[in-house]
UniProtKB/TrEMBL annotation:
Pfam families with a match to the protein in the record: 7tm_1
InterPro entries, per database record: GPCR_Rhodpsn, GPCR_Rhodpsn_7TM, Somatstn_rcpt, Somatstn_rcpt_5
Protein name: Somatostatin receptor type 5
Transmembrane segments: 39-61, 73-96, 116-135, 156-173, 193-222, 243-263, 283-304
Subcellular localization: Cell membrane
Domain G-protein coupled receptors family 1 profile: start-end pairs: 52-301
Taxonomic path: Eukaryota, Metazoa, Chordata, Craniata, Vertebrata
PANTHER family, sorted: NEUROPEPTIDES RECEPTOR, SOMATOSTATIN RECEPTOR TYPE 5
Keyword Glycoprotein: yes
Length: 361
């Protein structure tokens, strides 16, 4: 394939590849100079993401036994994050040696898997937000949509839709002739294909899911406030505090990690950023920040849960574990006739207040 013509900085490529130059002085698709510290940072993020998400997968399979709807979504999110992290060593290697040494097949495979699992991570967060909305706002009517079989079906649909979204990566990813870098080689007109790809991935892979997440937690917060009024001021303040913390943690971290990446892409459609150290550094920052979101997920969806925290201690401090943690997160709140979720008596503590359970987020 012919090398790409000069195009916007990220040129429609995904995280795996450097799509186009920052300016016109570098041949299209060529890699800018990369400091060794950047490569080490990519590998560090990879190690942390793999370690944290592998631990989540082990805990869910070993201790939670896949008995809750939330654990099914958490498991899929962790699997997606693990696969997402596997692309980082390839990316770091390409930056370190300034070319792609793994051949055309691995270029297509790694780039496609990178896209699939990035989409899957975002869609999993969206599905989990919808699940939380149903659990709190419609605990009775939504019960039939919160069964394990439905969760497995929804998870399979997420993976299938992510594969569909990533088909352009499988078709157009290749090693660029004359440059040796793994990149996306769009057909003519290159600018149009690149622009369409950036817009459609930004809308369907970020802004759309973010809108759904914000809407879910906004409606959830309204419900918590309304239920707080009925049960008293003290409980209302407690519910609002927990709901606000959840909204801030989930939405802001998700948006904070991915918004710069998509903003840089969209802005660069109109203005080609100059090839300067600041612009180059900004590119590496937004890419590594998007990968870092996978490192944050174990903290957000596991360490904020008392049950997961106890299970982690069992795994890391006492490998033999104990019978008390095998079913630590297998019971979810049941709605009473008033429509407000009711905590099971066997799960007391601050993580199970009946309205918002961080252990099942």
């Amino acid at each position: 394939m012919e090398p790409q013509l000069p195009a916007p900085m990220l040129g429609g490529s995904w995280n795996m590849s450097w799509a186009a130059p920052l300016g016109n002085s570098t041949p299209a698709g060529a890699l800018p100079p990369v400091a060794p510290g950047v490569v080490l940072l990519y590998l560090l993020v990879c190690a942390l993401g793999l370690g944290g998400n592998t631990l989540v997968i082990y805990v869910v399979l070993r201790h939670a036994k896949m008995k809750t709807v939330t654990n099914i979504y958490i498991l899929n999110l962790a699997v997606a994050d693990v696969l997402f992290m596997l692309g980082l060593p390839f990316l770091a290697t390409q930056y370190a040696v300034s070319y792609w040494p793994f051949g055309s097949f691995l270029c297509r495979l790694v780039t496609t898997l990178d896209g699939i699992n990035q989409f899957t991570s975002i869609f999993c967060l969206t599905v989990m937000s919808v699940d939380r909305y149903l659990a709190v706002v419609h605990p009775v009517r939504g019960a039939r949509w919160r069964r394990p079989q439905v969760a497995r079906t929804a998870s399979a649909a997420v993976w299938a839709f992510s594969l569909l979204m990533s088909l352009p990566l499988a078709v157009f990813a290749d090693v660029q002739e004359g440059l040796g870098t793994c990149n996306l080689a769009w057909p003519e007109p290159v600018g149009l294909w690149s622009t369409v790809f950036i817009v459609y991935t930004a809308v369907l892979g970020f802004f759309g899911p973010l809108l759904v997440i914000c809407l879910c937690y906004l409606l959830l917060l309204v419900r918590v406030k309304a239920s707080g009024v009925r049960v008293g001021a003290r409980r209302r303040r407690r519910s609002e505090r927990k709901a606000t913390r959840m909204v801030v943690v989930v939405v802001l971290v998700f948006a904070g990690c991915w918004l710069p990446f998509f903003v840089v892409n969209i802005v660069n459609l109109a203005v080609v950023l100059p090839e300067e150290p600041v612009s180059t550094g900004a590119y590496f920052f937004v890419v590594i920040l998007s990968y870092a979101n996978s490192c944050a997920n174990p903290v957000l969806y596991a360490f904020l849960s008392d049950n997961f925290r106890q299970s982690f201690r069992k795994v890391l401090c006492r490998p033999g574990g104990g019978p008390g943690t095998d079913d630590a997160d297998t019971v979810e709140a049941r709605p009473d006739r008033s429509g407000v979720p009711r905590s099971p008596p066997s799960a007391p503590g601050p993580g199970a207040n009946g309205l918002l359970q961080t252990s099942t987020l």
